[in-house]
């Protein structure tokens, strides 16, 4: 979606054109001026001008000529090498740092950790300091200068609002931890932060080439092993519609793990969310009282029920079921959901949704963070000084 369709306005139309042409090339390149004009719906003189400017800045290079049977062979344009996006997955204590090229291909990644145990009093300072320190170290190791990184994205476990986040699955009454501001200030690049599951959904949609498709509504349900002291499984979710992730008024929408399960065998409040009957509490209770390695049938049931509710709530075109905490449940749950989808079709004549598992779990959050950062350039080109520099 281009910035104009998002309803944004800019004084500098050249900047918007450059951002649009840059975005088009990162989805499909090398491409000719005509092809870029078609995908951006800009005129060929406008595209030509934007390409010349992007070439002058160094973000775009000529990639030979297009082979065609007759006439002059048109020049192909593509994105330059030597510029990067940065994606960070802050899982606490695990930390993954990755750099991607301008076409969002993974160049290098590193696994590290940031332990916050014993730092509870000063976590709002300690955490950003550690993450920024690790990122700087990584870039230095890779011999990547800060000036060649266009933007950074960070995925965090918790509620995100105004560039800060609350890791409430890790801490009781967590402070709001500012991360975007310190990253931008100390790495001197535009930064975005997002909820980890939201970013994994973006990565999965990008992998399926659905990110720019109109009319895509996707629901993501994740149950992941957790390293938090009070729970073995973390349940999260995300919804994509209208070209973006549904955020809610406070940035905490789609916390499916804390929605209710109506079960009589629930006890007192154990989760930090405030809902004594939440799904995550219920699943963790059931797991902890079962023999090791055995997943009680009730867990399969509540996860299947939750997915049915989500299908009615959002009427999605795609459902992504990510049960890394219980890989053995994936097929039975998807089988039940498909039976339900068939029944719903028989009774209500609704088609779909397609139900799938994600392709990559290890790097999905870091990759989603890179994609969010990339989409931020297209939505807010004025934040990227390189785009406005004179060629
Ligand atoms: Zn809860």
Spatial strand sequence of the major β-sheet: 5-4-3-6-10
Distance between the termini: 26 Å
Number of strands: 15
Query: Strand-and-helix sequence, N→C?
Result: HHHEEEEEHEEEEHEHEEEHHEHEHH
CATH H-tier superfamily of the largest domain:
ATPase, nucleotide binding domain
Q: In terms of per-residue confidence, which ranges show pLDDT below 50 for 5 or more consecutive residues? A: 1-11
Bound molecules: zinc ion
Give the overall silhouette: globular
Compute the number of helices: 11
Give the number of domains: 3
Mind explaining what this structure looks like?
This protein folds into 3 domains: 13-79, Winged helix-like DNA-binding domain superfamily/Winged helix DNA-binding domain (Arc Repressor Mutant, subunit A), CATH 1.10.10.10; 84-198 and 364-386, Nucleotidyltransferase, domain 5 (2-Layer Sandwich); 199-356, 2-Layer Sandwich (Nucleotidyltransferase, domain 5), CATH 3.30.420. Helix content is 37%, strand content 21%. The protein contains 11 helices and 15 strands. α1 (13-27) runs antiparallel to α10 (364-379), α2 packs across α3 and α6 packs across α10. The longest helix is centred in the middle third of the chain and has 19 residues, at 123-141. The protein is globular, with a radius of gyration of 23 Å. The model is unreliable at 1-11 (pLDDT under 50). The chain binds zinc ion. Zinc ion (ZN) is lined by residues 258, 271, 273, 275, 278, 280-281. Zinc ion is lined by residues 258, 271, 273, 275, 278, 280-281.
